[in-house]
Amino acid sequence: MAARIPLERIRNIGISAHIDSGKTTLTERILFYTGRIHKIHEVRGKDGVGAKMDSMDLEREKGITIQSAATYCEWTGSAQQFEAHNINIIDTPGHVDFTIEVERALRVLDGAILVLDSGKGVQSQSITVDKQMKRYHVPRIAFVNKMDNPGANYERVAEMLKEKLGHHPVKLQVPIGAESSFKGIIDPIVGKAFYFDGNDGEKIRVEEIPEEYKDAAKSARDKIVQDVADVDDVLAEKFLMEEPVSDQELRDAIRRATLALKMTPVMCGTARCNKGVQLLLDAVIAYLPNPKDITNEGHDQDNNEAKVVLESDASKPFVGLAFKLQQDKYGQLTYFRVYQGKISAGDTIYNVSNEMRKVRVPRMFRMHADDREEIQIAEAGDIVAFYGVEASSGETFTDGKVKITLTSMHVPAAVISLAVAPKDRATEVNFSKALNRFTKEDPTFRVHQDEESQQTIISGMGELHLDIYMERMRREYNCDVIAGKPQVAYRETISRRAEIAYTHKKQTGGSGQYAKVGGYLEPLPSDAVETYEFVDEITGGAIPREFIPACDKGFREGIKKGTLIGFPIVGVRCGINDGAAHAVDSSEMAFKTAALMGFREAYEKAAPTILEPIMKVEVDAPPEFQGTVVGQINQRRGAVLETRAGDMTTIVAEVPLSAMFGYSTDLRSATQGKGTYTMEFSKYAVVPRQEQDEMKKKYREKLAAEAKK
User: Fold this and answer.
1) Closest CA to 415 of 641, 679, 95
2) What is the DSSP string of 96-146?
3) CA-based nearest residue to 664, from 634, 625, 632
4) Contact 416, 659 (CB under 8 A)
5) Could you tell me where the beta strands, DSSP code E, fall in 566-631?
6) DSSP per-residue letters across 690-704
7) In the 3-class helix/strand/coil scheme, how is 160-217 assigned residue by residue?
8) Mean pLDDT along residues 295-311
9) Range list of H helices, 377-520
């Protein structure tokens, strides 16, 4: 059990990459070589079993990962050179629609493996995953997979890490051959060649470096020393003094620089053909952090949210983060990362994020995809699942001795919505249960009731995201769903400054209402993080201090719905600099109303405009279809950013989301079924004037029709 293994011998890692780079295949091989499974099953295998980590039927049918899956294994080294190390692994989806699964995994992990396709290198989702790793300061190893594929180029992929992601890549290996002639791997640090024999590459043969590779291996070691010395002071001193560097000194320097996020070790192999995976596991032990190497901080709620460092120490008070919820046939499983202290089955814990609500931990498990092993104790550094503990993603729990919260994860905004309803009235209860469960499990899946039409609207990260949930309703809840036309998440904004001057006066029988608000609206800078900003420039008590929050509330009410097409307003700064109050008739409600009405008046004068989500689309197609693909993108108001030649031509473009519906069918028919694409949200941009006029006209017609009712 992991609790009995010292913290120094625990690794919590994630495996992340662009879709189809081989993450799940790699995880399957790791489980096989560490003895967790005894037979390898392929992701799209003909045996119908599917990979262990793809436990949902939908995942096995589609050959993609939808939910992140947790497992653990033990590794003693490719040559039994280590004491047993416990590795907790989370295999994450590659498809951008399930990006929250990657986000929450990286929030609780200490290190990661970034898997890259040897032929395609850094792709669009690799960039997104890398941003997430940077957000949570996760050290990573880059694994260049599929070295047996046509177009495999280890050096080029390492170069792309530098150009596209701004890494300091250090190639720790020399491949013996590439594409169909990829035979093995040279480790220049120890000066040996490694070959992987047996049906599943389980027998490692270590030999002297082949004669024709000796010079390459020597210069590769010199280059490693030089590249690591650039970012590690200890090694730099030896390098400048021209002193010899031992293998251990070099490994120690690589570890220091990797943990400090100053370099990325780059390794290679082919998971599908069982080459290089054991050496990658050795590197996970040698170069990725244990829980003690990482500084985790929380906020002390009893001390003005002051920052406190959480220590990976079992004797300290318990602090844990619920990062993932999953329903199974026995009930709700809540995945936890234990940051400090320890917890036993039967203990009572407190939900700090939810008013110190008390819950008991009935049972505790260590997960292996959809299998589980019951345990009694979990300690700092462990990733476990509690059964029967109600929680939401991102909530912090303690043992009640401390009141500390951890920062929750970043949740991206939804870009697409659908109106949905159950086909059969009899399944309405199941429909509600499904929506309730899915919103708890996935923070990017949102549900709301449309006030005007009373329809149920689901919102998410893309068409596939919503399709998967509708399919899960049918399978898991026996509830067929009718869906309306997809609705793009448009936004409204302003293009120029406008003054606010509004007086709210209302005299009734008793006390009246009076509030005068003066100020302005202006566009926020394009690089602003927030979508709304409130500025208080009141001097001399023109508006009494107690009514200033009411003005903010009024403005916030105003940005909820624009007047052009009824979508939320973003990118606006609302300032107040003047006003007046009445000793008797002024109230919070009066100032909120004055701010709201003043906002609406000024909004009309601030040249409002409509924004639409623009997607970054990456299309892979055979070179002979390049012209057709570019033509399709142009027809959909897209702009081509980059074209990369190879066995498959890669076209990167920016296209409005509203023009992407039905694209997969068009692409398949135009490329004889050989073209594939991925897309992710890039930015919001102004809708062309002609289309804006059309949208405004439709919105006015809709309002008129509703008014007649």
Assistant:
1) 679
2) GGGHHHHHHHHHH-SEEEEEEETTTBS-HHHHHHHHHHHHTT--EEEEEE-
3) 632
4) no
5) 572-580, 608-621
6) HHHHHHHHHHHHHHH
7) HHHHHHCCCEEECCEEECCHHHCCEEEECCCCEEEEEECCCCCEEEEECCCHHHHHHH
8) 86
9) 428-441, 463-477
CA 209 to CA 369: how far, in whole Å?
Answer: 39
Taking the C-alpha atoms of residue 25 and residue 53, their distance in angstroms, rounded to an integer, is 9
The DSSP bridge partners found for residue 504 are 515
Beta-bridge mates of residue 14: 90, 112
Residue closest to 193 by CA, chosen among 279, 277, 288: 279
Q: What is the pLDDT of residue 526?
A: 81
For 198-249, write each residue's pLDDT tens digit: 989 999 999 999 999 999 999 999 999 999 999 999 999 998 988 999 999 9
| pLDDT attached to residue 47 | 44
| Residue 517 or residue 391, greater confidence | 517
> Which helix (H) or strand (E) element contains residue 388?
none
Q: Which of 594, 637, 600, 633 is nearest to 617 (CA)?
A: 633
Distance CA 325, CA 322 (A): 8
Indicate the burial class of 168 (C-beta count within 10 angstroms; 0-12, 13-18, 19 or more).
middle
Q: What is the 3-state secondary structure (H, E, C) of 16-33?
A: EECCCCCHHHHHHHHHHH
Is residue 276 pLDDT above 90, yes or no?
yes
Residue 49 phi, psi (nearest 5): -85, -45
The residue with tokens 């590197």 is 283
pTM above 0.90, yes or no: no
Please, is 357 exposed, middle or buried when counting C-beta atoms within 10 Å of its C-beta (0-12, 13-18, 19+)? Answer: middle
261: which 2 tokens?
A: 């996020």
> Both tokens of residue 382?
């462990």
Q: What is the dihedral of CA 385, 389, 391, 393, to 10 degrees?
A: 10
Q: What pLDDT is attached to residue 44?
A: 46
Which pLDDT does position 62 carry in this prediction?
A: 62
Enter the DSSP assignment of 587.
-
Scan for tokens 């993080």, then name that residue. Answer: 529
Residue appearing with tokens 């869906």? 483
**Residue 240 CB-density burial (10 A; 0-12 exposed, 13-18 middle, 19+ buried):** exposed
Cα(424)–Cα(473) distance, integer angstroms: 13
| 3-39 burial: b if 16+ Cβ within 10 Å, else e | bebebebbbbbbbbbbbbbbbbbbbbbbbbbbebbee
Residue matched to tokens 């399919």: 471
Phi/psi of residue 314, each to 5°? -70, -20
Residue 534 has which token pair?
A: 């409130």
Instruction: Give the C-alpha separation, 574 to 179, whole Å.
Output: 59
Of 222 and 19, more confident:
222
- Give the whole-angstrom CA distance, residue 240 versus residue 226: 10
Q: Which residue has the higher pLDDT, 519 or 439?
A: 519
Determine the Cα–Cα distance for residues 391 and 406; give it in Å rounded to an integer. 15
Residue from 464, 379, 372 nearest 660 by CA: 464
Query: Quick one: DSSP state of residue 275?
Result: B
C-beta atoms surrounding 188 within 10 Å: 23
Q: Copy the structure tokens of residue 147.
A: 């070295």
Q: For residue 62, what is the enclosing H or E element?
A: helix 57-62
CA distances from 93 to 23, 433, 539 (A): 8, 25, 53
Give the residue from 206, 171, 205, 170 showing the smallest Cα distance to 191. 206
Partners of 436 in the beta sheet? none
Cα distance between residue 665 and residue 455, in whole Å: 28
Residue-level length of the chain: 709
Strand 174-176 with 184-187, pairing: antiparallel
Residues 6+ apart with CB under 8 A from 27: 15, 51, 52, 53, 71, 89, 91
Q: What are phi and psi of 289, to 5 degrees?
A: -75, 155
Distance in angstroms (rounded) separating the CA atoms of residues 570 and 564: 13
> Which residues, listed in sequence order, are joined to residue 88 by a DSSP beta bridge?
12, 72
pLDDT digits over 193-202, tens only? 999 999 899 9
